Amino acid sequence: MPNESIITVANLKKHYGDIKAVDDLSFDVARGQIFSCLGPNGAGKTTTVEMMEGLRTPTSGSIEIFGVDVTQDYASIRHRVGVLPQDFIPFERLKAPEAIEYFGGLYSREMSTRDIDRLLETVGLEHRKGIIAKKLSGGEKKKLGIALALVGQPELLFLDEPTTGLDAQARRNLWGLLEDLRNEGTTILLTTHYLDEAEKLSDDVLIMDEGKEVARGSPEDLIGRHCGGRSILLHEYGEDSTEKLEAMGLAAERVRNDVKITVGEGVSVRDVLRRLDSGGIRYKDVTTAEPTLEDAFISLVGGTIVSGELRK
Ligand SMILES: Nc1ncnc2c1ncn2[C@@H]1O[C@H](COP(=O)(O)OP(=O)(O)OP(=O)(O)O)[C@@H](O)[C@H]1O
Ligand SMILES: [Mg+2]
Q: Is residue 181 part of a domain?
């Protein structure tokens, strides 16, 4: 059944004294999709996810997963769900195969040596089989956490910042893995600060801030609704201010050393470049760019992106 909701969250709140970590959030997650929950630090993502995982009790509101009220009976769905917590710490004294075997037991799954090897290969940890988890690098520990989340062959996977700390290759490998899992029917709820990753992977996105929904939709929807359209970047623009450009009726802003001009609807890049030439505007080089989820995010939430991550 397409678009069948497997998670339904209604009027969810989690307050810690005066702190409204989650403040009246309602959304649903469709089966077989990658659903990303985005937002700046402290937005309430982990709190929301951990309530869905039965780890924190809501102050009020409801969460149904597979039609079950998780605040009442999480135990009955636990075996269908895989979890990677944001602050995952492995059992220090176990080697990866032993940890996988142990988790297999929790999910009543007999793990053969072949199953274990395959899982370790999937996350790129096969060459680290022989050492205890304590001695793994930060990124390797994360990979072990991802492997453990997959042990139960879950229908629903919660991954709270799975790529934080992974190197570029490992991150791309994980994207491939998540797409494969989604294509096989697994539903994935992801949190990430990497907006390129969210744009590439997500079918559906919830942007939140201060415990509340800020926007919701597919990456394409959000970009279409909240970005000004295509832009032109003038590199090494000759003047300090963008006043001259604005006087020409162009929507211009400084972005580091460049100047970004948003190309309005019904206007071509060529039109804008002609206007710049005839206005005697000097610059060294020019590139064009399509708007991204990052642009939508910044226009909705504010802040800046440093090394691909949001800083508010
Ligand atoms: N146990 C707690 N007691 C008090 N305040 C808490 C508790 N857990 C979370 N908070 C507060 O709730 C807010 C949301 O925290 P949460 O961890 O859900 O944010 P987040 O969106 O996951 O952030 P990050 O991107 O940094 O992981 C923060 O202001 C945090 O300080
Ligand atoms: Mg978090």
A: yes
Pocket test for ligand 1, best of 13, 22, 37, 47 (most atoms within 8 A of CB): 47
- The residue contributing the CA closest to ligand 1 atom 17 is 46
**Residue 67 burial class via C-beta count within 10 angstroms: exposed 0-12, middle 13-18, buried 19 and up:** exposed
DSSP secondary structure of 5-37: EEEEEEEEEEEETTEEEEEEEEEEEETT-EEEE
Residue identified by tokens 């009246």 is 24
Q: What is the pLDDT of residues 251-273, one digit of tens each?
A: 898 887 889 998 887 888 999 99
- Whose Cα sits closest to atom 3 in ligand 1? 16
SS3 38: strand
CA of 211 to the centre of ligand 2 (A): 12
Range of the domain at 281: 228-290
Prediction pTM value: 0.88
CATH no. for residue 272? 3.30.70.980
Cα 210 to averaged position of ligand 1 atoms, centre (Å) = 10
The phi and psi torsions of 24 (rounded to 5 degrees) equal 70, 65
302 within some domain: no
Q: For residue 46, how far is its CA from the centre of ligand 2 (angstroms)? A: 4
Atom of ligand 1 minimally distant from the CA of 44: 18
Segment 36-89, tens digit of pLDDT: 999 999 999 999 999 999 999 999 999 999 999 999 999 999 999 999 999 999
CA angle 262, 226, 86 (to 5 degrees): 120
Pocket test for ligand 1, best of 14, 46, 53 (most atoms within 8 A of CB): 46
13 dihedral zone (left: phi>0; alpha: psi -120 to 50; beta): beta
Residue owning the nearest CA to atom 24 of ligand 1: 41
Residues 43 and 178 in one domain: yes
